[in-house]
Design brief:
Elements: E1 7-10, H1 18-22, E2 27-32, H2 42-46, H3 55-70, H4 81-90, E3 98-101, H5 104-112, E4 119-125, H6 127-131, H7 149-162, H8 165-168, E5 175-178, H9 185-189, E6 192-197, H10 204-210, E7 215-220, H11 225-234, H12 239-242, H13 245-278
Protein name: FRG domain protein
InterPro entries: FRG-dom
Domain FRG: 23-122
Length: 279
């Protein structure tokens, strides 16, 4: 089943976002600092000039070469292909994974962080998959584990099929929502989860459309960023809490500047209004 289109919404007031914060258990979120950007993976961007029949070969080659040398830099050897892909993604290697988060507030932070124009929050409904894990309502309250063994097994199967030219044509378009059984520190802190496009010869967008999931793109106008960043700061959602170590703390310093810039804009706007009333 395909979805006909991606529903696009624009925030008119901050309260418009409350629906998603209240029912975030239904969705996964991806924040992007530029609302004109689409959804595509790092691998898709890198290989766009290559013919389709070379893509599975290139993906397999990159994974193979990464595995050959990674032992020089890591203490823990991944135990599954998805865990390998997550590690590669973490360090900037091009993969077919696209990062999302289960937290509305974390997704919102990534949309606003470093944004200089209208930002976007992408929302994918995953409620049907989450509900399948249990027969009661516990899934709504994050009581059950988010790890899905079947999803990881499906990723493993597709990657194995991609190595066989005779099997590639049997892979249908779609998106798998998955996370590795063993999560790295950043993935854990950010409540991260991956979307895995099944057909690597098709665009991420085409795979997403074919998945049948409800998808929304929420544009967040620049004028709301200051108030929202201040709210997130009070909730302790900053670069220093989302990125482990000194790197995150250092990155968080720019948020002080961004919040003050937005505050000064509001002050100047209020002063202009006051002076106009005296005219």
């Amino acid at each position: 089943m395909k979805i006909k289109e991606i529903i696009e919404l624009t925030v008119k007031k901050i309260d418009d976002l409350e629906e998603f914060s209240r029912e975030q258990y239904k969705y996964i979120f991806r924040g992007q600092s530029n609302n004109t950007w689409g959804l595509n993976t790092t691998f898709e961007r890198v290989v766009k000039e290559l013919p389709k029949d070379r893509l599975t070969y290139q993906e397999d080659l990159v994974r193979f070469e990464f595995k050959r040398q990674a032992h020089h830099y890591i203490n823990h050897t991944p135990k599954s292909e998805l865990e390998w892909l997550a590690l590669m993604q973490h360090y900037g290697c091009p993969t077919r994974l696209l990062d999302f988060t289960r937290s509305f507030w974390v997704g919102l932070f990534f949309a606003l962080d470093e944004s200089v124009q209208d930002a976007a929050l992408w929302v994918i409904d995953i409620s049907s998959e989450e509900k399948e894990k249990t027969n009661d309502e516990a899934w709504k309250f994050n009581i059950t584990s988010k790890y899905n063994e079947k999803a990881e097994a499906e990723v493993e199967q597709i990657l194995a099929m991609s190595k066989n030219p005779e099997q590639i044509s049997k892979i249908n378009q779609g998106i798998i929502i998955a996370e590795p059984k063993y999560m790295n520190d950043r993935l854990r802190i950010q409540q991260g989860v991956f979307t895995f496009p099944k057909d690597i010869t098709s665009s991420y967008y085409d795979n997403l459309i074919s998945s049948g999931r409800a998808v929304k793109k929420i544009t967040i106008p620049k004028k709301f960023h200051g108030d929202l960043l201040r709210k997130l700061y009070r909730m302790n959602i900053t670069s220093s809490t989302l990125y482990p170590g000194l790197e995150g703390y250092a990155r968080s310093m720019k948020n002080h500047i961004l919040i003050d810039k937005e505050y000064q804009k509001q002050v100047n706007k209020d002063l202009d209004t006051i002076f106009k009333n005296f005219d």
